[in-house]
Every structure is written in structure tokens, then in C-alpha cells.
């Protein structure tokens, strides 16, 4: 516990006091403005009545003309007063919505649609993905990749490892085409990823992040969220996705099963349960995904939950041609990968199976494993 309740109460109280002070000043200014408007209007009306009475006494003006003139003057004054208030509200609205308009008018550098959708792409992503001399840097930052080249074989588990900040998650972002490489190509067999339709391509990929995002609704709606046509997802398909992700048992244990509310950000579920629901959602969203990306999806799980997730992944590979890309540090996950790619200093430093990399003397991967083993021993005491 941080024991910061009083600190937060004081900070919140100060913010409320600041808002009250500003609102009080605004109220005083608004009252002074409208008061001056009304005072000036009454002075003007009194002047008109006085001068009009003199004209009536001289026979130059009738009572009806004076009444009509006074009525029109009052209506014009009220309209001008309302216009000033309306202008203030317009300025408030423009100030509050400027950021929304900026986001709305932003043109994405990578269009959501346009490019190859079917045919060659569907055939290609059943085979191999190739990073070919890829260089990349986030806008305004130093180059992250200088010359990345490696292959992601189809139907196998490829693990990407490296130290913090080496660009592991960026590999997933590039494969999802959230960014395009500054140099080089990402080839899906003979098709450049830049030539594919981004929306169609992302539909072929299921993603599970380190911190799964669940909404405050039912398990069913969380799994179906993101599906292109959720109304066409049958109950059998929903159960199949839950079973493949090893989530069916704990879902059926709830009294309301798939209609169980998960709470804000999935607060009613454990970390392992949230991850398995996220995997089920990835399977449903991508509609039989050909590539499954797990961005450190098991780093926050206990041993039992991680075993269940890994068991689900093995089941997926046995029953389909799905390709799995795992970005993780956990030895228990990496050890079962068919291929391990080690990133270091903007390039691929090592690649191979777990046993191959462990036999490299003074290898980067071997040092990472040894450091992790030492930390586990320290935590056991």
C-alpha cells in the first residue's frame, strides 16, 4: 500500500478549489457584463420615452409610433445581448473540440484500405514471412533497426528475444503494418507487405498483448469484440475459440457462463483468465488467423496459467497451419519455440533453436538465460 489517500484528497481538493475560483471570476465577469447591458438599455429606453413624449406633445409623433419604436428597440437590444452570450459559448465549444477536429482530420500515413486482398496473399501467408534488410526508426528517435533479416517459417513457433528496448514489440508492429520500414522489405513469400490491403491483412492476424484490454461487459461480448461480422459468429464457433484457448472450463464454472460480467478492465478475472479470453478473441476476430502474435502474452502469468496457454498454442499448431510469433523473456515459453531470433544493437545477433543458441560460447542468448536463472534463484530465497 502507498498510504497516499490524504495526499490524493488534498490534490483533488486543490483542483476543485481552483475550478471554483475560476468559475467565481467568470460568474462575476458575466454578471457585470449583463448588468451593464441592462443598465445601458434602461438608460436608452428612458431617453427614448422622454424625447418621444416631447414629440407627442408637439403633435409630431403618435402614441402608437412611440410604442412600436420602444418595442423594436427592446427586441434589438435583447437580441444583441443574446448574440454576445452565444459567441462566448461558441468559443468554448471550439476550444474544447479543437483536439477532436485535429484527430478527425488526421490523414493516416498507411491507408486502411487499398492493395491486394485475396488470391496470392492468402496462399502466401500459409508459407513464409521474410524480414529482408529492414531498417526502421520511430519519428523523432534514433534508428532502432539497422539491418534486420530473418525468416518466420509457417506453421511453427518463432520467438523474438532481446534486452529491453531492443525492438521486440516493434517486430510485431511492423508485421501488423502499423508502421512501414524506412528501408528494406517485409515479404510474404513473393508479395511485399506494402502491396497488401492493411485491413484485410490484419484480419488474418490474431494478436494478444502483454496487458489484454477487456471492456466492462460480458465475456461473450469481449470475445466477439472486433469480429468483422459478430452476428454471424455461431455459438459453436464461440465455444470452439474458448476451448482452443483453454478458457472454456473456467467460463463454464461461472453461474452465467459466457454472460458473466468481467468488470472494469476485467477486474473480476485473474491475469491468466484475462489472457485466455484475449486469445479466444484473437481467434474469433481474425476468423481462423494464419498468424498469431503473442507480445509477451505470458510474462504476467503464473506457472499454471502459462502452462494452459502454452497447451492451447500447441493444440493450435497441431490442428492447423497457423504461424505463431512470440515476443517474450520467459524461459519456459522460449524453450518450446521452433526458432529463436535474438535482437541486439539494431540487428539479428543470433538465431536458431534453444539448444543451438545455448551451445554458443559467450552468446547473447546464453547470457540472457543465465541472468534469468540467477534472478529465479535469488527470488527463491
TrEMBL record:
It comes from Trichostrongylus colubriformis. This is ATP-binding cassette sub-family B member 8 mitochondrial. Keywords: ATP-binding, Membrane, Nucleotide-binding, Transmembrane, Transmembrane helix, Transport. It is found in: Membrane. Pfam families: ABC_membrane, ABC_tran. Signal peptide: none annotated. It is a multi-pass membrane protein. Residues 125-370 form the ABC transporter domain. Residues 1-92 form the ABC transmembrane type-1 domain. The lineage of its organism: Eukaryota, Metazoa, Ecdysozoa, Nematoda, Chromadorea.
Amino acid at each position: 500500500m502507498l498510504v497516499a489517500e490524504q495526499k490524493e484528497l488534498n490534490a483533488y481538493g486543490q483542483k476543485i478549489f481552483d475550478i471554483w475560483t475560476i468559475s467565481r471570476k467568470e460568474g462575476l465577469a458575466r454578471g457585470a457584463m449583463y448588468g451593464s447591458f441592462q443598465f445601458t438599455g434602461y438608460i436608452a429606453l428612458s431617453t427614448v420615452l422622454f424625447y418621444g413624449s416631447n414629440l407627442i406633445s408637439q403633435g409630431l409623433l403618435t402614441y402608437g409610433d412611440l410604442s412600436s419604436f420602444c418595442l423594436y428597440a427592446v427586441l434589438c437590444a435583447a437580441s444583441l445581448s443574446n448574440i454576445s452570450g452565444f459567441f462566448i459559448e461558441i468559443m468554448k465549444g471550439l476550444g474544447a473540440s479543437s483536439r477532436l477536429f485535429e484527430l478527425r482530420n488526421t490523414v493516416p500515413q498507411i491507408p486502411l484500405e487499398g492493395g491486394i486482398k485475396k488470391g496470392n496473399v492468402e496462399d502466401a501467408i500459409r508459407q513464409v514471412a521474410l524480414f529482408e534488410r529492414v531498417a526502421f526508426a520511430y519519428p523523432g528517435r534514433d534508428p532502432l533497426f539497422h539491418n534486420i533479416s530473418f525468416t518466420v517459417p509457417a506453421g511453427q513457433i518463432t520467438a523474438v528475444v532481446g534486452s529491453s528496448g531492443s525492438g521486440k514489440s516493434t517486430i510485431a508492429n511492423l508485421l501488423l503494418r502499423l508502421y512501414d520500414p524506412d528501408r528494406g522489405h517485409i515479404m510474404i513469400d513473393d508479395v511485399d507487405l506494402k502491396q497488401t490491403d492493411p485491413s484485410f491483412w490484419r484480419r488474418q492476424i490474431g494478436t494478444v498483448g502483454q496487458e489484454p484490454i477487456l471492456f466492462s461487459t460480458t465475456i461473450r461480448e469481449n470475445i466477439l469484440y472486433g469480429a468483422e461480422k459478430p452476428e454471424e459468429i455461431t455459438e459453436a464457433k464461440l465455444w470452439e475459440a474458448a476451448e482452443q484457448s483453454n478458457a472454456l472450463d473456467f467460463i463454464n464454472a461461472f453461474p452465467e457462463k459466457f454472460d458473466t460480467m468481467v468488470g472494469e478492465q476485467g477486474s473480476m478475472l485473474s491475469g491468466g483468465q484475462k489472457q485466455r479470453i484475449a486469445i479466444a478473441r484473437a481467434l474469433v476476430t481474425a476468423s481462423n488467423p494464419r498468424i498469431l502474435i503473442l507480445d509477451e502474452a505470458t510474462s504476467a502469468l503464473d506457472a499454471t496459467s502459462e502452462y494452459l496457454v502454452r497447451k492451447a498454442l500447441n493444440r493450435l499448431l497441431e490442428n492447423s497451419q497457423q504461424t505463431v510469433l512470440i515476443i517474450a523473456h520467459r524461459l519456459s515459453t522460449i524453450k518450446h519455440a521452433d526458432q529463436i531470433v535474438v535482437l541486439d544493437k539494431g540487428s539479428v545477433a543470433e538465431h536458431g533453436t534453444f539448444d543451438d543458441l545455448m551451445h554458443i560460447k559467450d552468446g547473447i542468448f546464453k547470457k540472457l538465460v543465465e541472468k534469468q536463472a540467477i534472478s529465479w534463484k535469488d527470488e527463491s530465497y
